[in-house]
């Protein structure tokens, strides 16, 4: 299940329906070797592969995981065989960071590493009175760049100020790099945004985050038509109106940009959706496909989907795709805090040695209550812990079309 706005979720009258939906869904060059993405999954084991819990609601909540077979990608025996990364939502005012785990096998066991700090250096902004928030450091994709022999990630941050025509403050996306997955720097030493929000009327006037870079099944960046590609959630929230999100594409001849916006990727199941995120953007058998999750304008239910391009070496998506259903997994809750769970994002990768495909998904466990200070009273949720669950593919071909 892909990331969505926790602030929107907590206001949602349809929260219980969303939670129910969450429970249901709750070596080689994959671009050219003929293998296609898998769409049916079963849990691996009876427990999550990673867990984090905290009395700080921001620290307790994880989002937007990425999993890569790092040693197979780098070719270095000293690197971990597998690495898993996951992010926090925001408001880490003094110590913005992400988390990482390592394992010798994709099915575990995973060892948690110390938190990974935001790279040194300030975000560069258009003007001195409009910097980005130091503490909002969230939800970057992680892929391997075989040309630069490095990992590349795409976190986003938020402006301090908001145009008067908008109800939400714009959030732009940045790029950083690493050779080992632990120590990160801004890509090319440049801390400026690589993907900026559009004007106040644009589909991405408020948000450019929660995106994925086009890669193969093993995690290597790929090109189509000589271009790198990036799918992202364009958010638009005009003053006094409902927020909506659109899947948008951009491309570049160099991974560092400049990036050119290419417009809407496809029409989602729900038009003017309020919840949208991406689990993976994969080129397999020379055909691009997007794993994503979308929610209705009424916030629930969520649908997990796979959309595929019209043909090989083509970036045209003509329909919303086909639905994906994940089996339920046990919820983990802290003692004396009975709660329910909602999703925080997923990622698809295959084991380069066995060619088996896997999906990792974050499940955020929450304690629920009612906020009686607003009219009408609203359902509230306090995140107490996050689990990362692993699924393995059980179907080896795409549905016929």
Brief summary:
The protein has helices at residues 6-11, 15-24, 57-60, 70-74, and strands spanning 41-43, 50-53, 63-68, 82-87, 97-103, 111-112, 116-117, 142-145, 150-153, 156-158, 171-173, 176-178, 185-186, 212-213, 223-224, 227-236, 244-252, 260-264, 275-284, 287-295, 302-308, 322-324, 340-350, 357-371, 378-393.
Whole-number radius of gyration?
A: 19 Å
Distance between the termini: 24 Å
Q: Major sheet, described briefly?
A: 5 strands, antiparallel
Q: Specify the helix fraction band.
A: under 10%
Report the total helices: 4
Order of helices and strands: HHEEHEHEEEEEEEEEEEEEEEEEEEEEE
Tell me how many strands there are.
25
Quaternary structure: single chain
Average pLDDT taken over every residue: 85
Fold and architecture overview:
The chain has 401 residues and is mainly β. Helix content is 6%, strand content 37%. It has helices at residues 6-11, 15-24, 57-60, 70-74, and strands at residues 41-43, 50-53, 63-68, 82-87, 97-103, 111-112, 116-117, 142-145, 150-153, 156-158, 171-173, 176-178, 185-186, 212-213, 223-224, 227-236, 244-252, 260-264, 275-284, 287-295, 302-308, 322-324, 340-350, 357-371, 378-393. The strands form six sheets. Strands 1, 2, 23, 24 and 25 form a five-stranded antiparallel beta sheet that branches. Strands 3, 4, 5, 6 and 7 form a five-stranded antiparallel beta sheet that branches. Strands 14, 15, 16, 17 and 18 form a five-stranded antiparallel beta sheet that branches. A hairpin with a 7-residue loop joins strand 5 (97-103) and strand 6 (111-112). The radius of gyration is 19 Å and the shape is globular. The protein starts with 5 loop residues before the first helix and ends in an 8-residue tail after the last strand. Mean pLDDT is 85; it is low at 1-28.
């Amino acid at each position: 299940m892909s990331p969505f706005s926790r602030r929107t979720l907590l206001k949602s009258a349809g929260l219980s329906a969303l939670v129910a939906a969450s429970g249901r869904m709750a070596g080689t060059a994959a671009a050219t070797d003929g293998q296609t993405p898998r769409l049916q999954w079963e849990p691996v084991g009876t427990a999550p592969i990673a867990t984090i819990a905290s009395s700080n609601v921001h620290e307790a909540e994880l989002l937007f995981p990425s999993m890569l077979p790092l040693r197979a990608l780098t070719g270095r025996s000293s690197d971990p065989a597998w690495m898993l990364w996951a992010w926090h939502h925001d408001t880490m005012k003094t110590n913005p960071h992400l988390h990482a785990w390592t394992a010798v096998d994709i099915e575990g066991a995973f060892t948690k590493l110390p938190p990974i700090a935001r790279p040194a250096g300030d975000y560069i902004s258009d003007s001195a009175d409009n910097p980005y928030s130091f503490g909002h450091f969230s939800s970057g994709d992680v892929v391997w760049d075989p040309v630069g022999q490095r990992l590349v990630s795409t976190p986003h941050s938020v402006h301090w100020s908001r145009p008067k025509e908008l109800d939400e403050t714009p959030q732009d996306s940045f790029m950083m790099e690493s050779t080992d997955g632990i120590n990160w720097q801004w890509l090319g030493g440049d801390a400026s945004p690589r993907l900026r929000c559009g004007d106040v009327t644009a589909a991405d006037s408020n948000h450019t985050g929660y995106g994925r870079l086009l890669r193969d099944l093993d995690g290597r960046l790929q090109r189509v038509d000589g271009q790198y590609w990036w799918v992202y959630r364009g958010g638009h929230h005009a003053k006094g109106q409902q927020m909506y999100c659109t899947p948008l594409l951009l491309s570049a001849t160099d991974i560092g940009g400049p990036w050119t916006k290419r417009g809407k990727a496809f029409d989602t199941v729900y038009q003017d959706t309020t919840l949208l995120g991406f689990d993976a953007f994969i080129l397999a058998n020379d055909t691009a496909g997007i794993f994503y999750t979308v929610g209705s304008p009424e916030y629930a239910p969520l649908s997990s989907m796979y959309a595929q391009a019209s043909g090989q070496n083509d970036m045209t998506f003509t329909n919303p795709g086909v639905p994906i259903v994940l089996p339920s997994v046990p919820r983990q809750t802290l003692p004396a805090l009975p709660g329910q769970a909602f999703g925080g994002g997923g990622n698809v990768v295959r084991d380069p040695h066995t060619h088996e495909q896997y999906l990792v998904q974050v499940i955020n466990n929450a304690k629920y209550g009612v906020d009686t200070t607003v009219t009408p009273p609203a359902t509230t949720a306090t995140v107490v812990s996050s689990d990362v669950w692993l699924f393995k593919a059980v179907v080896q071909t795409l549905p016929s079309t």
